[in-house]
């Protein structure tokens, strides 16, 4: 089966190294109520530089998980894909309760599913640029609210209708087990689901529970040391790899602020390839296993089922 990129359906083979959970262009500045507009990423020269660094590292695919209410910009993603010869996969869905547009509280699960299906089958925001992933579908810290549960239900309906995969947001790594229960209640084939921000989850028993279900998990906040140090993430990852879960883990940095960009003194998207992958290799992780996490697993996860 194909993947669905902003420039159309493609064979998964076009994907080289892939970042599985990123934002290129989005705007959460209104939500976070910051005067400095740090929580806003734009299609500008600093992004161009970041992407050129990634391409030099052999990364040609970005999974963009900004969705409705997060300042998603389909046209900008299409332009970026063409300008940099980058594979970009865009997302549909709704993020979490504190970010939902007002209508999410009012509409039924069926109506929300219809919006997602339209984004996947017809195009996003009045364009013919299609979403290729249902993401990032989130829960709040230590809680799945009633409305969040409705959005999960809608995401499952849209998945069943379109075959698009689903990627979730676990706030600071929490609520994975409860999200899993929602998917299992509706008999979702867990190979189509990836749980986000699991590198922030210090409960390894829960990580293992998610992996045992057949789902993917993401170590996708690499470089965000304020939540958890990369060194702790490496140790955690080594244990999971040691248990043989290399076919179900994917990696990313989840860049969400201007201050994360290299030009502004941040670690940048390329931190994954520049620092984290070398740290894994120093710890004895083979090229073959790194290739699974960066290339093979994303190809299999993102192919429509
Ligand atoms: Zn997230």
TrEMBL record:
Its cofactor is a divalent metal cation. It comes from the Bacteria. Keywords: Hydrolase, Metal-binding. Coiled coil: none annotated. One of its GO terms (molecular function) is zinc ion binding. Binds 2 divalent metal cations per subunit. A divalent metal cation 2 binds at residues 136, 169, 197. Signal peptide: none annotated. The keyword Hydrolase applies. A divalent metal cation 1 binds at residues 21, 23, 136, 254. Belongs to the metallo-dependent hydrolases superfamily. Phosphotriesterase family. PANTHER family: PHOSPHOTRIESTERASE-RELATED (PTHR10819), PHOSPHOTRIESTERASE-RELATED PROTEIN (PTHR10819:SF3). This is Phosphotriesterase-related protein. It comes from Peribacillus deserti.
């Amino acid at each position: 089966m194909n993947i669905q990129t902003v420039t159309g359906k493609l064979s998964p083979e076009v994907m080289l190294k892939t970042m599985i959970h990123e934002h290129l262009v989005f705007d959460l500045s209104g939500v976070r109520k910051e005067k400095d507009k740090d929580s806003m990423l734009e299609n500008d020269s600093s992004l161009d530089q970041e992407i050129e660094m990634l391409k030099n590292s052999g990364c040609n695919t970005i999974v963009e998980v900004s969705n409705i209410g997060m300042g998603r910009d389909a046209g900008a993603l299409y332009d970026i894909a063409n300008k940099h010869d980058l594979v970009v996969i865009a997302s549909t869905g709704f993020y979490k309760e504190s970010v939902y547009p007002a209508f999410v509280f009012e509409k039924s699960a069926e109506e929300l599913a219809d919006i997602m299906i339209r984004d996947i089958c017809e195009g996003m925001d009045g364009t013919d640029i299609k979403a290729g992933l249902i993401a990032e579908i989130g829960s709040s810290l230590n809680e799945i609210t009633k409305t969040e549960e409705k959005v999960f239900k809608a995401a499952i309906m849209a998945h069943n209708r379109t075959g698009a995969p689903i990627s979730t947001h676990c706030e600071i790594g929490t609520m994975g087990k409860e999200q899993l229960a929602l998917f299992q209640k509706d008999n979702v084939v867990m190979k189509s689901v990836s749980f986000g921000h699991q590198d922030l989850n210090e409960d390894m028993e829960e990580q293992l529970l998610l992996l045992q279900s057949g789902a993917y998990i993401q170590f996708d906040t690499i470089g965000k040391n304020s939540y958890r140090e990369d060194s702790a993430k490496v140790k955690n990852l080594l244990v999971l790899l040691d248990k043989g879960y290399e076919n179900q883990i994917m990696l990313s940095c989840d860049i969400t602020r201007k201050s994360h960009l290299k030009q502004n003194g941040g670690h940048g998207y390329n931190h994954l390839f520049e620092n984290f992958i070398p740290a894994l290799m120093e710890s004895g992780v083979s090229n073959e296993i790194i290739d699974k996490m960066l290339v093979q697993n994303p190809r299999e996860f993102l192919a429509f089922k």
